[in-house]
Predict the structure.
Amino acid sequence: MRPVAVVGIGKTPFGALAGRDLRSLAAEAARKCLEDAGVAPAQVEAFYLGNFAGPSFVGQNHLAPYVASAIGITGVPATRFEAACASSGSAFFHAWSAVAAGIYDLALVAGVEKMTSQPTPKVTEILASAGDLCGEIRAGATFPALFAMIARRHMHQYGTRREHLAAVAVKNHANGAKNPDAHLRKPITLEQALNGKPVADPLTVYDCSLISDGAAAVLLAPLQRASEFAARPARVLGIAQTSDVVALDEKDDITTFQAVRRAGEKACRMASVAPREIEFAELHDCFTIAEIIALEDLGFVAKGEGGPYSADGRTCLEGEKPVNTSGGLKSKGHPVGATGVAQICDVVLQLRGQAGERQLRRHSLGLAQNLGGSGATAVVTILGAA
Amino acid sequence: MNSETISPGSGVVYTETVIHSAPEAFLDEAPYQIAIVTLESGRRLTARILGDRVHVDDPVEFAGFRDAVPCFRKRT
């Protein structure tokens, strides 16, 4: 297995982008990525597309060649990956596998979702299809409801409080306000976060990520060729994709994501780093409780301490372990199929020292954690300056 | 096992939520409560809660199926 580098990144702004379709969003991110690397579309040897629900959101299927041809890529393998909100994390993992194995030198990975063309109740229904339709969803659960039940149990077992959840939202909004590509660039107060409109108790609108349109792309190449490209490379030091059961009621303990624990352990082992050595992270805050649990599952804090750790400000830009400097899914936005690759882009921006107003002082070792559904897929990637 | 004919019996609330923002199919019913119930067998299932709101650790009893969804209510 040979070492692999991210040699190009590109993103569209995230938001409710009326008038933009799925294909043009993905193509824009991909073109920016290829320009960043200084690579022509004809040089790309394989195309990996992460997309959760294009067929439901916009009615289009056979998406990977459909998008690839808009970029100017034809004739090479073009495949769509679906793993709920970890769709593009999974596409990234499989592209990395192929480059590491020596099958391809230049693999382009894009993630895209076009969500805002549907009304919110319909979006809620489409997102719920990532749950168990024969059990929890038939009983009336939504995705916020599944995470609300996780939050309720976490509160019960560990004393996590509404204030802890709200602190995550306040921090991510503050970071997102500094990100020119974020969906919602608006700081909020703790009081606002605590008094938001209820969605599924104990979660309010401020605990939930956004319904967004957007796309992101990265280009992978063997590390030994990284100096050929225009942009500063980032090395993939460790990566793992893992899985677990889909239905919450089939889990022994819903306050932890076993898939994330395993992926984190495997990625750290591959990178030969301990969780405490990771300097910063993009964590999958689809809901505020998910960021708190990710801190615990990745071994950044002990089980049950994610809430107080967040409320103490330890994960803010100036804290010891900055989390979601991009604003996270909460403020940057969550076009679900784009999220995994967008997280990689945001880690690479920090590694390169190109994160603008939110640039960290310590930025040589970062982690991205992408979660699918209520935990049935997890992808953890550790990246370092090459 | 035919879940339509076998009663899951009674159980204890493992976790719960009251849903305010409902999917299209349940818009008319919001707000409504669902819970994951731990049955006496140790098995868990996701159920609709009828009647009074329940909290974690509350005992609940089976109250029938509605559209193949198990329903429970607070045991008094």
Summary: Chain A has a mean pLDDT of 97. The interface with chain B takes residues 120-122, 124-125, 128, 135-136, 138-142, 144-145, 148-150, 152-153, 156, 197-203, 247-250, 254 of chain A (CB under 8 Å).
